[in-house]
Amino acid sequence: MYQEEIKTDTSVKEVLEHIVPNCVTGFIYGALVESFASEHSSRMMAMQAATDSAKDMLQQLSIEYNRVRQSAITQQITEIIGGAKAQKKK
Known about the structure:
membrane; rod-shaped
């Protein structure tokens, strides 16, 4: 196996002085991106929960509306039948 020694003009200290700040900046940037993504994920989950809750509420209100409407229709039919019976008795 052939290996060649690479010679550089810079010292290890100079290389580290350049790499370490970039590495720290990268870690900080990664933490900020992760925080941003986490915040948006939390908002999305909250919005999904609110949407699901609104759908459930809409379904319950629709059922209640149909009950009230059916009750009103039944009452009207009963009144019509009662009026028709009263007319027949005359």
